[in-house]
Amino acid sequence: MNIEMIEAAAGRLAGEAVRTPLLSSPFLDEVAGRRVFVKAECLQQTGSFKFRGGWSAVSALPLDERTQGVIAFSSGNHAQGVALAARRHGAPCVILMPADAPRVKIDNTRALGAEVVLYDRATGDRDAIGAALAEARGLTLIKPFDEPLVIAGQGTTGLEIAEQAAEAGIGAADVLVPCGGGGLSSGIALALQAKAPGLRVRTVEPEGFDDVKRSLEAGEILRNERGSGSICDAILTPAPGQLTFPILARLAGPGLSVSDEEALAAMVAAFSRLHIVLEPGGAVALAVALFRPDTVEGEAVIVVASGGNVDPAAFRSALGRFAGA
Amino acid sequence: MNIEMIEAAAGRLAGEAVRTPLLSSPFLDEVAGRRVFVKAECLQQTGSFKFRGGWSAVSALPLDERTQGVIAFSSGNHAQGVALAARRHGAPCVILMPADAPRVKIDNTRALGAEVVLYDRATGDRDAIGAALAEARGLTLIKPFDEPLVIAGQGTTGLEIAEQAAEAGIGAADVLVPCGGGGLSSGIALALQAKAPGLRVRTVEPEGFDDVKRSLEAGEILRNERGSGSICDAILTPAPGQLTFPILARLAGPGLSVSDEEALAAMVAAFSRLHIVLEPGGAVALAVALFRPDTVEGEAVIVVASGGNVDPAAFRSALGRFAGA
What we know:
The structure is a homodimer. Chain A is of the alpha/beta class. The first copy, chain A, folds into 2 domains: 3-48 and 147-322, Rossmann fold, CATH 3.40.50; 51-141, Rossmann fold, CATH 3.40.50.1100. Chain A is built from 14 helices and 10 strands. Chain A has helices spanning 3-13, 26-32, 50-60, 63-68, 77-89, 103-111, 126-137, 148-167, 183-195, 211-218, 244-251, 260-273, 284-291, 312-322, and strands spanning 22-23, 35-40, 70-73, 93-98, 115-119, 140-141, 173-178, 199-206, 256-258, 300-305. In chain A, the strands form 2 sheets. The first copy, chain A, has a 6-stranded mixed sheet, sandwiched between helices. In chain A, strand 3, helix 5 and strand 4 form a beta-alpha-beta unit. In chain A, helix 8 (148-167) packs across helix 9, helix 9 crosses helix 11 and helix 12 (260-273) packs across helix 13 (284-291). Chain A is globular and about 55 Å long. Chain A starts with a helix and ends with a helix. The interface between A and B is large, with 38 and 38 residues.
């Protein structure tokens, strides 16, 4: 992995990805006690940064492989990102999802042109089913994070942060990044190392699912004990990746975590003050800036708001609880 | 009014206003039956395009006048836009609001550093109170739309639309603009005439408050019969302005209108598909694109999403009704 791979991905993404804005609000600055800048990746195509990695991987495939098609395992943002990238390339796309995935996610992925194959989470072996499908049809697997082309795609977010921070006059700051497997945070870390060395990545996870934070402390890959139980479903990953962890260990500061309550309150603050829609997992970095300011350094902080594909009922409930609505 | 005034305003706004993105979603394209591009001004400073006009006017004042301070009559987006512009210039700012304005709007305007003066809507004469205050303290009145510097500021939205449409390969399209007094739509119309003559402004208003639409049809300024009764409070204005109407009569296509129900449904579509927060009045142009596609021409349509300062309870209610939440 190097900066040239990220810049090459940026070249392939030009005109396809949204250059998402860096937003701010005097109200958030006041809560946080410092200037807060929010990189709004919820405004990205398909509602999350995952489109960057999906496009980066699909667009780099040799034409004969691309024509055969791609496959991804995901019930969430990675599925939609890969599906749209494949459709725009005219490439067949299979998404393997558990049969109990939310109906709206299945429907949305199909509406983006993908063939959704469902498996039984209790009895089916996802990897075996996927491998058999890939073999039978000649599909290329697009992994969600532990894949250099995907990390390079997510890293284009970091190139934009470097430019936008310079425009805003921010030379040194912590850059808080919601973290599942570490594709986004490691990609951004590589980009910032090359383009804005005063900016330092810090990963943010839900409490109880802080495998990256604990792995960084231990200096080795540790796993979460549980696989579910946080509302931040988009960033619940068992363990950091084999490729992403060494990058984070080298470049990132200490890991951070927040409670589900703090993530929901940040989601509502983003609604009221920035007028963006975040999913809980996409709001954890903002939650640190607003509610745990003592864990961050500097006069300004940059947070990535990584995705906005939230269930309307969950959003409605959060508005009721945290906006007095 | 000319394009040079708009370009001068853009120069003064550089580094202050957000260059808001032009967003899209394949899901919206499918509903509309054509490509839909959304200029997300809800992401602007203070949550609406009004910051552009406020900044344009305050920044153009001679230093001695600016130091005396400014005054505006508004309980809504214009108040916040002027207040933040004044604060950043170090200029005193008085906002005259009816005493029955929503508490949150009064609090937000005060939090942006303005002195809020309340008057009784039933017994007080707003213009007389404002004139007396302005006279006593040497304040400059910043009108909400019928003021060349304000129109020039709002017109900077049109400069960005012209650039972004060219980048997206859109040479000809209707540009749908939520319309109250016509400051935003007339400013955009002037900018597009100079920079993207294939793009044509169409005003969008709430049904029953379509003074601009009827005025354009009649060729003279007509007034609304009612002053309240739509949820689209941000764009309920009695009549088009003396400055804005002739510009619209010369440059805009036929006016459009939508129901409150359509505005709410568009607000929810923007939540689900674009991950932006709109107020009902900010969603009326998107509502035309989605729900009245036969009234628009061309293979693509550009809509301005003009503001996002929505009451959380109203938003919550709309999610319940239109997202099945």
